[in-house]
Amino acid sequence: MQLQVEQLTKAYGSNLALNGFSYTFTEGVYGLLGPNGAGKSTFMSLLTDNLLPSSGVVRYNGQPISKLGKKYLKVLGYMPQQQGMYDTFTAERFLYYIAALKGLKKREADLQIPQLLSLVNLQQERYKKLGNFSGGMKQRILIAQALIGDPKVLILDEPTAGLDPKERIRIRNLISEISFNKIVLVATHVVTDIEYIAKEVLLLQKGKLIGSGSPYKLSNELQGVVFEIQTTSDRLADVAQHYKIGNIAKEIDHITVRIVSDEKPDHYAYTEVKPTLEDLYLYRFDSEDTV
């Protein structure tokens, strides 16, 4: 099973929202990282056939998705970031509605929907109206609807937004489990979520793919540029002026600051530390691009 993206480009006038994106996806979880405006939403809209590319092609198992039409939509599951749902629908009715849109027969829906409600920990809320759901509960029902029909390609836009830590771990583990026979693409700003479960991470900036690899490989590219320094509150502004700061921790008698820097911070007491994917995000994407 393959999802191939070949020189995919989307232009809005002179603005290139996506510029020559090429990649081949197979079974497993892929994380899509990039600042706001990097082209992530455009890319997902092209993969779901909600947008037509200016040039390039998306192929599923060698066939252009534009020619596959409904056959492609049957193997596709999509969770949007926006929580646009019918507030008067119960959770169960909403899933039956989505199942009908996907062309499932009622007996198939009868089997799948209880299982999906259990998977996302909403079996006790099946008769509750969506308008009374919390933001986190809405995220979970959106994940459930994306899984209706056992899709082979699953695209999740910010799947853990609004979830508490316990539910975020639950959903993260669920994504990992279901990826064994699916292509799963996760766009998120919660870097730690994909650090644990993604087999590949794609870095997108200003519409271009600027890097890819396993979380371990990408993080190791920062060996020798991540440090923890000890300073005082009156020197914190100076640290911020000269370095990219990842974390600030107040200790009893000093402040520990995690920084990313190509040069060793020789003016401070420092320790070189193991880089993470979050450090990579800070290093590769300038702060002015993340607004």
Outline the structure in words.
- β9 and β10 (208-213) form a beta hairpin.
- The model has no long low-confidence stretch (mean pLDDT 91).
- α4 crosses α5 (106-119).
- The longest helix has 14 residues, at 106-119.
- The chain is globular and about 70 Å long.
- With 291 residues, the protein is α/β, with parallel strands linked by helices.
- The relative contact order is 0.15.
- The protein folds into two domains: 3-215, Rossmann fold (3-Layer(aba) Sandwich), CATH 3.40.50; 224-274.
- Helix content is 33%, strand content 29%.
What is the strand and helix layout of this fold?
Layout: E1 3-12, E2 15-25, E3 28-33, H1 40-47, E4 55-60, E5 63-64, H2 65-68, H3 70-74, E6 76-79, H4 91-101, H5 106-119, H6 135-146, E7 153-157, H7 165-178, E8 183-187, H8 191-197, E9 200-205, E10 208-213, H9 215-220, E11 226-231, H10 236-242, E12 244-250, E13 255-260, E14 269-272, H11 277-284
Parallel strand pairs: 3-8, 3-9, 6-7, 7-8
Antiparallel strand pairs: 1-2, 1-4, 4-5, 9-10, 11-13, 11-14, 12-13
Summary of the model, kept short:
This protein is of the alpha/beta class and 291 residues long. It has helices at residues 40-47, 65-68, 70-74, 91-101, 106-119, 135-146, 165-178, 191-197, 215-220, 236-242, 277-284, and strands at residues 3-12, 15-25, 28-33, 55-60, 63-64, 76-79, 153-157, 183-187, 200-205, 208-213, 226-231, 244-250, 255-260, 269-272.
